[in-house]
Write a structure and sequence with these properties.
By secondary structure, the protein is α/β, with parallel strands linked by helices. It is 42% helix and 12% strand. It has 16 helices and 12 strands. Strands 1-2-6-5-4-3-7-8-9 form a 9-stranded mixed beta sheet, with helices on both faces. The chain has a 3-stranded antiparallel beta sheet with strand order 10-12-11. Helix 7 packs parallel to helix 8 and helix 8 packs across helix 9. The longest helix has 16 residues.
């Protein structure tokens, strides 16, 4: 019977029912004087008296035991060291309570408290070396400035942002679009474990829930909702980061976009955001000039920011051919082998050999499309 459940357990159950959803659950809680046990103990007819609650939702609540094993869920949480924080818990992100559809609760795993103002960094999964470098630099600078860096643990920009924050010894929060027992993408297992030790992992989804298009969209609203500002580093015009930016705008958050090359599809989304009113961002200082925290909450101690377009320099022990090729990458150029042959005046065989040496010395990197770009010093 529902009477035997605690309010915490009842919220855990309601959160796990996909047919119900956070908006309907909040509406039900308002109708039942904030008592989740009362919701689970009500009959179908009583539940259907609530605005927006039909027969499907009502029967899902009444028969919740058929789809959700509460005892197994609690055993998994205990075995994994996972908590479930509700809106009344001190670890529930305070800004998240302000959005119109906040999660009923969040599964939480990690050894760090969420005690700092949050800034989200998001972007494309298929990113450039420039984008990864910028995201890592921003993540590190924000962490040094006293922010918690929030992102989604996805490939590309998300990964770079988390790693940048961790490299500075700062705080980072990964918001998952699936159950907390799943690592996606799988190559981020080591990053997942590091965030577990040095940051925090959060999700609204129960154990074993797989990721899908809907779950990632729901994840994105949390990324935006718990953050005071959102930074988009790279995104095409139809990327998931554009959805996150829309959430942020609708939620009244500050939206920033990092400009990129005009001939790169991964910059098109950022440029569209800037045209639509997002603030152009070139360093953490741009964000700090926009944010205004009360009661001494504004972080201090911002580290100096290096130029994003620093000159590509070669050590003195580099050959003239190596120095000639490196100079072709000035200004962030992305070049094919043919373009390098043309700009340097060197034969194809020489360019190929020199590029291999520069790759081994980590001065240039080959992109997925076969072109090359210089590695920017951080």
């Amino acid at each position: 019977m529902a009477d035997s459940l605690s309010q915490f357990q009842a919220l855990l159950v309601l959160n796990a029912l996909p047919e119900v959803g956070p908006i309907t659950t909040h509406r039900l809680l308002a109708e039942f004087d904030g008592d989740p046990c009362g919701i689970l103990g009500a009959g179908v007819e009583r539940l259907m008296q609530v605005r927006g609650v039909g027969e499907v939702i009502s029967r899902s609540i009444v028969s919740w035991r058929e789809v959700f094993d509460l005892e197994k869920e609690e055993a998994r949480m205990t075995a994994s060291g996972v908590g479930f924080v509700t809106a009344t818990h001190s670890e529930y992100p305070p800004l998240l309570k302000e959005i119109h559809d906040p999660p009923i609760g969040l599964y939480r795993k990690g050894n760090r408290a969420l005690d700092r103002p949050c800034v989200a960094i998001v972007g494309s999964r298929r990113t450039t070396l420039y984008g990864q470098t910028v995201a890592a630099k921003l993540g590190a600078d924000l962490a040094r400035a006293g922010f918690c860096v929030v992102s989604g643990l996805a490939r590309g920009i998300d990964t770079a942002a988390h790693e940048g924050a961790l490299s500075a010894g700062g705080q980072t929060a990964a918001i998952l679009g699936h159950g907390i027992d799943t690592v996606y993408p799988p190559e981020n297992l080591s990053l997942y474990r590091r965030i577990e030790q040095e940051g925090v992992l959060l999700t609204e989804f129960p154990f074993t829930r797989r990721a899908d298009r809907q779950s990632f969209a729901m994840r994105n609203r949390i990324v935006a909702g718990m953050s005071a500002a959102l930074i988009v580093v790279e995104s095409d015009v139809n990327g998931g980061s554009m959805i996150t930016a829309k959430f942020a705008g609708d939620q009244g958050r500050l939206v920033f976009a990092v400009p990129g090359r005009i001939d790169q599809p991964t910059s098109a989304g950022c440029h569209q955001l800037i045209r639509d009113g997002a603030t152009l961002l070139t360093s953490v200082d741009d964000l700090l000039s926009e944010l205004s925290y009360l009661d001494g909450l504004r972080p201090t101690g911002v580290m100096p920011n290096a130029s994003r377009h620093a000159a590509v320099s070669a050590p003195e022990d580099f050959s003239p051919e190596e120095q000639r090729l490196l100079s072709a990458f000035e200004g962030g150029a992305i070049l094919s082998i043919d373009a390098l042959c043309s700009s340097s005046g060197l034969e194809l065989s020489v360019v190929s050999a020199v590029l291999m040496r520069l790759e081994l010395r980590r001065k240039v990197a080959k992109r997925l499309d076969g072109t090359f770009e210089a590695r920017t010093a951080s």
